[in-house]
Design brief:
Pfam families: Polyketide_cyc2. The protein is built from three helices and eight strands; from the N terminus they run ββααββββββα. By secondary structure, it is an alpha+beta fold.
Length: 152
């Protein structure tokens, strides 16, 4: 089995405590207000539960699509993991979101997605740049949102 291909966002430093940033990250009802890549989320956030991620179309066309994954790790305020399970035949993806405390009122955020499976390389040829851009956009938007709310 070949090694997975990992797409990683930029790491952003956020001027707010890790616990506060975690709460912003998992406030899924507010995603339409700030998240440019994952515009809606439906989940109970319980380990094993589905997490339905509504994303814009990768080709820039109007509309969205739902990507169903499954929650695997919920470790506030540090780590959130979900994966595709058997949802997409020939592609397995594991997404990790990391919040690292850098002091009392500072932390960093980054996300990774590890893709493997028979069709992963072909899928990444067309969507890899879109995924990377989306992850970077989320990191910057989370920083902006958390800092605005923290300062308020």
């Amino acid at each position: 089995m070949s090694e997975p291909t990992v797409i990683e966002s930029v790491t952003v430093e956020i001027g707010a405590p890790a616990r506060f940033v975690w709460d912003v990250l998992v406030d899924y009802a507010s995603y339409p207000e700030w998240n440019p890549y994952t515009v809606q989320v439906a989940t109970t956030l319980e380990v094993g539960a589905p997490i339905d991620l509504t994303l814009p179309n990768p080709d820039g066309a109007a509309g969205t699509f739902v990507n169903r994954e499954h929650v695997r790790v919920v470790d506030p305020p540090h780590h959130l993991r979900y994966d595709t399970g058997a949802e997409i035949p020939g592609i397995f993806a594991v997404r990790d979101q990391w919040i690292t405390p850098l002091g009392e009122h500072r932390c960093s955020y980054r996300t990774t997605d590890a893709f493997s499976g028979k069709h992963a390389a072909r899928m990444l040829e067309t969507t890899g740049p879109w995924i990377k851009a989306g992850f970077d956009a989320v990191a910057h938007a989370l920083k902006k949102r958390a800092e605005q709310l923290w300062e308020a």
